[in-house]
Amino acid sequence: MKNINIGLIGCGKITERSHAPQMLNIGRKVRITALYDLNRKTAEALEDKFSLECEICPSVETMLAMPDLHGVIISTPNDTHCTLTLQALKAGKHVLVEKPMALTLKEADKMIAAAAERNLHLQVNQSLRFNSTYAKIAKMIKSGKIGAPLHIRCIRASGSSPDKGWAPGSTWFTSKAHGGGIVKDIAVHMADMLCWYFGDVEKIHSLTKTRIKGNDVVDNAVSLFEFANGATGVLELSWTIPTGAALLEIYGTEGSIRLGSEGIELIVPGRKKPLKVKPGKARSSHSCFIDGILGKASAPNPVEIGRNALACCIAIEKSGETGKSVKP
Predict the structure, then answer these.
(1) Of 249, 266, 303, 328, nearest to 99 (Cα)?
(2) What is this structure's pTM?
């Protein structure tokens, strides 16, 4: 394969900030050759910003009909992920789809089956899995740096929802019809991380709230995780804390790991000060997607990861609605 040609479906903020630059950073053999967005001006702005020489397609169907297009990146509202992925797979294109991969497990399973049937690479952009800091912490836990896992606590909070923050005007983030809300936006990452570090979840018990006036989605959630290995976890998420918050604490039988403003810190009994740990390097989700197109196995199965993350999100939402513990 001389060149790998990629199409971008959805040209909004996540494409502008992540997908386009990450693809361009991989190398000359990877080219962005097609763009599509519901708002053509958004696609034109992306093309201009990155000096792309590509076709701005009038429809998804037009893009998928391009014979020399190898794969697509889908960065659209959550409720369109399944339909667009199935369209792309049917057209013979490899797919990197934004998280959450779908709104239901039934949809996720359809996507997985379609990719397997056509022997195409389907990857969910669970980007924390490819982040050097979080990957380093995973290695530390796996190597026994803190002994057996006991408890994990993660808080992620901001003073506004994405449509008022980093993606102005993207109101689908707070639309139930589009699968919005803080659970499928943030828990899809952080719940996945808890499972990555501590293993299978036995049950989740959640308290969910809608505090932003006019919202019809959950914008605050506190969830208690019980893991199969006996460990516990707490995940705290909010779009209504003005000062924001970002902290990760992981406790084991022989020490703990903290991630905050000081970076990664390893705390062990008998040591007066925390040990600062450098994150090292990790491969990007996008380079692993290219490897997937080329048939290389260089990343953990992204479909299993994406499905499991979605299962946790659904469990959090269901528990918040019913007041009962839910097994993902």
Answers:
(1) 303
(2) 0.95
